[in-house]
Amino acid sequence: MRDGQLCRFVLTDAERKPQSLVSKHLTGLLPYAWSRDAKYVLYWEDPDFSASIMADGLDLFRTPVAGGSSQPLGVTVLVHDDMLALSPTQNKLAATVGAGRETWSEKRIATIDLDTEALRYLTDENTSAICPSWSPDGKQIAYVAAASGALERMKQPMGLAQAKPHLEQRRIWVADASTASRPKQITKDDRYRDEEPMYSIGGAHILFCRMDRDGSGTLWLMSATGENLIQLSGPLPLEGSWFGYYGYIDWRRTFDWFRNPV
């Protein structure tokens, strides 16, 4: 009675019935995106349709559109669109990998080859990194990172007081997608917590969000190397406090950015 289904509907053939790609008993199936080559659909599996389990992240899968068995990609990812990003040039995915709803603890940025399922980490275990964003040429990945709160979490449950110092350390970093060089921190103003980087269509700029110590959010633009910072707007109408949902704030609810080439 509670079978989750992931279906494909062909818009150019309205008479055809939807094709079931995946069906699983007592499991919610949440679609994320098509792969760049359109061979796969990526999705999460939610055991027993559980909102509590989903809040701690779900396992990510790929299923072939042409038919066949689904394959796990070997990662657990929080169910937010900005925790993943498809490469603009290759059949790869950048993802925020790590279980647990606390975004300041045990989260790493990794790339996944959607053809071979090869996994490559770009960040280490000493930082908690979220929200990857590819440069248009597919060579760089911008993301948010701060020192991880994993050790403190092991000693005692972390509440607001323990989480705040970690969240306030968040800065924008840029990593080489090939891991040929070490990641670089490109924002460093201690008055702000920096989040949600997004490359411009030409790759020369990064749009990002900031929060000051009073919890006020603003929208900024800078060069892709972290120079010439300009505040564009603010304050942004954020929902809730600086804590958000376990350190996660859905910044994209507050703005939209048209980046399609003309």
Features:
globular, 262 residues, four-stranded antiparallel beta sheet, mainly beta, 3 helices
How would you explain this protein's 3D organization?
This protein has 262 residues and is mainly β. Helices cover 8% and strands 44% of the residues. The strands form 5 sheets. The protein has a 4-stranded antiparallel β-sheet with strand order 3-4-5-6. The longest helix has 9 residues.
Unreliable stretches covering 5 or more consecutive residues? none
Largest sheet: 4 strands, antiparallel
Radius of gyration from CA coordinates: 19 Å
Number of strands: 18
Question: Could you state the oligomeric state of the chains shown?
Answer: single chain
- What gross morphology would you assign? globular
Overall average residue pLDDT: 93
Structural class: mainly beta
Strand adjacency order, main sheet:
3-4-5-6
Tally of helical runs: 3
Give a brief description.
The chain is mainly beta. It has helices at about 50-55, 150-155, 160-170, and strands spanning about 5-10, 20-25, 25-35, 40-45, 60-65, 70-75, 85, 90-95, 110-115, 120, 125-135, 140-145, 170-175, 185, 190-200, 205-210, 215-225, 230-235.
